């Protein structure tokens, strides 16, 4: 009969064997995400330098959707 320790080790070995197949894809995805974040960070820094370099308010977000007519009668 297997004890808790043996079952834990067996489970870890199975997970490691199955994870080996997907590990390169996971590392590749993590690298892409890191490059994207780095380029976005650099773009924000460059944009700040072009506008004068000082702290500024972020641009308002535009949310596309339905518009309603305002009632202008008093």
Structure report:
- The chain has one helix and no strands.
- The mean pLDDT is 80.
- The chain has 74 residues and is mainly α.
- The protein has one helix at residues 4-50.
Please outline what is shown here:
The protein is mainly α and about 70 residues long.
The main β sheet shows up as: none
CA gyration radius, whole angstroms: 26 Å
Percentage of helical residues? 55-70%
* Unreliable runs: none
* First-to-last CA distance: 85 Å
Shape summary:
elongated
Task: Count all strands and give the number.
Answer: 0
Strand percent estimate: under 5%
Q: Label the structural class.
A: mainly alpha
Number of helices: 1
Describe this protein with a few key phrases.
elongated; 1 helix
Task: Give the SSE map.
Elements: H1 4-50
């Amino acid at each position: 009969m297997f004890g808790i320790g043996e079952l834990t080790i067996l489970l870890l070995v199975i997970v490691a064997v199955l994870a080996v197949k997907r590990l390169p894809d996971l590392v590749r995805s993590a690298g892409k995400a890191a490059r994207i974040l780095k380029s976005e960070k650099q773009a924000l820094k460059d944009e700040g330098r072009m506008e004068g370099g000082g702290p500024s308010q972020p641009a308002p977000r535009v949310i596309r959707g339905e518009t309603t007519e305002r009632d202008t009668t008093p």
